[in-house]
């Protein structure tokens, strides 16, 4: 399959979107706290509130993409992202920081995965699976690139100047990419790529209007699966090292294991891209959910047997599940419901997911402090189980639906 330069460009812009508006915070927040003599908990609380602002904006931006197209929405997103980052560089008090941080996360959704997936759905219809996978494969290196880059920049300049550099990245690199994105949709057959099998491929099943299985129930199952999976990934991303320390693992061991998550994530996405005809989107969704759940079961097993082999097995298995889950978020709604109304639909799903994602770090740490690390891990396993059962129920429901 020929790789579109616009898809590669979108992967680059998504890397900048996540690197400047998400991963930068964990590096720069301590610097901000020191400058203003704020507690780090206060600064991170504002970031979590910002994620809730993103949950509010996701459905709105999704509808705007459906109505006006991805090019103008994402281009304006780059402009406003640059503006908010530049404003952070000159803010002088807590109220200014709160307002600007909320605005930054409110517009972030316009330059991150959900907007990018909607752009690809508009362009390629149901054939966007490979493009979605390629974009996540490229953007999967956002933390790998930006964490060391930001730490290096801090040795050369102040955090205020670093924020100006991040603003410039959105204007100089991301904005031109979004402005040159192809407009409209290619004239391609609206059917998925065939699976590697001897039998002819089946068209994706679209529910008939009025069917008892149509309407709210499939969307509810998707929302539950995505939201509970988002809860898991947000909690693990924020609290993993804290939990591993409480489990008795040495810092060096914990960091070494956690560092395996990223490569495993990218490897799973690469395999999905190269072998995308092997499994259908529903099968990939099931594999992703089971991998997340299995990884967390292995992590919970370290409560009883704190062995490093279990810890590294968790990191590899969980990383693969996390890598595939990002792809599933884009391709499963497209597979089942098609490109019409894709922005609105994924915006709604993202809004629900982001609410739980914002609450996850606080919830897990609260459970750890009140009931112990075992309770926190049990909550994560339960959330992963809910995600798995929901996607299984969705696949079964849709398999029984009559295609039109």
Percent strand equals: under 5%
Order of SSEs = HHHHHHHHHHHHHHH
Number of strands: 0
> Would you tell me the structural class of the helices and strands?
mainly alpha
* Biggest sheet record: none
Distance between the amino and carboxyl termini = 29 Å
Rounded to an integer in angstroms, the radius of gyration calculated over CA atoms is 21 Å
Taking pLDDT < 50 over at least 5 consecutive residues as the criterion, the unreliable ranges are 186-213
Average pLDDT level: 83
Shape: globular
Residues in helices, as a percent range: over 70%
* Distinct helical segment count: 15
InterPro entries: MFS (IPR011701), MFS_dom (IPR020846), MFS_trans_sf (IPR036259), Proton-linked_MCT (IPR050327)
Transmembrane segments: 7-29, 41-61, 73-91, 97-120, 132-150, 162-181, 220-243, 249-271, 283-304, 310-328, 349-367, 373-395
Keywords: Membrane, Transmembrane, Transmembrane helix
Organism: Pannonibacter anstelovis
